[in-house]
Write a structure and sequence with these properties.
The protein is an all-alpha fold. The chain has helices at 9-16, 37-59, 76-98, 107-118, 135-147, 149-154, 159-167, 171-185, 187-214, 232-252, 258-283, 285-289, 309-338, 343-348. It has 14 helices and no strands.
Length: 349
């Protein structure tokens, strides 16, 4: 007698998942192997950044105290404990995700794949755009943001004021959009917010590297735009929250997102550094100031590398940010399908 099994979790998920009313048609047959453009793009970006950082690290070494070979290993146990803490967190995330049933391609992913094969995907996912703010208002805000730059530079305004003045015209619209997206897309809105914050973080690191080049490696004059926030507690809190947030997203999001995993792995390595550095800053500040701030992988750190700390942490953040950006982009494509544009918005557009 034939046994009729229960429908699988994957089938139920696909059946219950709202998707746009589009027919999924197979794409044209593949004409052979072709390289993944995004992998190529990332490889080229990483190569360029690596070459630039290598040049900067050689030509603009950091000016500051350095520990001797005997001193640098003094707190290696703390670094090992930090690595253990991160390993436990990473293992927990791995355990949680391994318990999920291995799902086949969801309905939303299938629609996205079909649209990509047919060449009908929009250039930018709708969910990453301003959805409820009229285009004219966003254009005016952007023009105003750019317009304030020259006058503030002419009067010698501090960088923090310039940065805030450029962002100020956009803040009301961003807050309005954030509320809308949080209500409509849930945790995805948090994902986008994390991406925006990490982008601003990258701007800070980029400015700091530029300042180091301009000051011949003088760290005392190279603290980014918001120099008042360039201290260890801020770095520890922001990077720890990012690490935890990425770990939660890996476990919460239904789709398996390879790029999100890459960002989480890079953030985990970064977190080990900041656990160690924060401990030094709090419990052995003299050691920290004498050169311990180079950390684990920084030049003259416990393990060490050719990169001084600012260049190393720029690299950490870049390796987190780029995969994170692609992960957000992929998830936004699926969100476009799961949450079609309301008819009222289509009519207004």
């Amino acid at each position: 007698m034939a046994i009729v099994g229960q429908p699988s979790a994957t089938t139920e998920q696909a059946a219950s998942e709202p998707v746009a009313s589009e027919q999924i048609t197979p794409g044209p047959p593949s004409g052979g192997w072709s390289p993944d453009k995004r992998f190529l793009g990332i490889a080229i970006t990483v190569d360029i950044v690596a070459l630039v950082l290598a040049y900067v690290a050689i030509s603009v070494p950091l000016q500051g105290p350095k520990l001797t070979g005997e001193e640098v290993d003094q707190h290696w146990v703390v670094a090992a404990i930090g690595a253990l803490i991160v390993a436990i967190g990473f293992t927990f995330v791995l355990f949680k995700t391994s318990r999920r049933p291995k799902a086949e391609m969801s309905a939303a992913s299938a629609v996205v794949a079909a649209q990509a094969a047919a060449g009908t995907l929009p250039r930018v996912p709708r969910t990453l755009k301003f959805e409820i703010t009229p285009k004219q208002k966003t254009k005016r805000a952007l023009i105003l943001s750019v317009a304030v730059l020259a006058p503030l530079l002419l009067v010698g305004a501090p960088p923090a004021l310039i940065w805030f003045a450029m962002l100020a015209p956009l803040i009301p619209y961003v807050v309005k959009e954030a509320r809308y997206k949080q209500a409509r897309y849930g945790v995805f809105a948090l994902f986008v917010l994390m991406g925006v914050l990490q982008m601003l973080h990258m701007v800070e690191h980029s400015v700091q590297v530029g300042q180091l080049v301009a000051t011949a490696g003088d760290l005392s004059r190279s603290h980014g735009i918001f120099g008042q926030l360039d201290f260890e507690a801020v770095h520890f809190i922001t990077d720890t929250l990012l690490w935890i947030g990425l770990g939660l997203l890996v476990t919460i999001l239904r789709e398996r997102n390879v790029w999100l995993w890459i960002a989480f792995i890079a953030a985990s390595l970064h977190e080990v550094e900041h656990l160690y550095l924060f401990w030094l800053h709090i419990f052995d500040n003299n050691f920290y100031l004498a050169g311990g701030f180079n950390g684990i992988m920084g030049h003259n750190g416990i393990i060490g590398s050719p990169l001084d700390r600012p260049y190393l942490h720029y690299t950490y953040n870049l390796i987190v940010f780029v995969p994170m950006l692609i992960a957000i982009w992929d998830e936004a494509r699926r969100m476009d399908v799961r949450h079609p544009q309301p008819a009222s918005a289509q009519a207004a557009g």
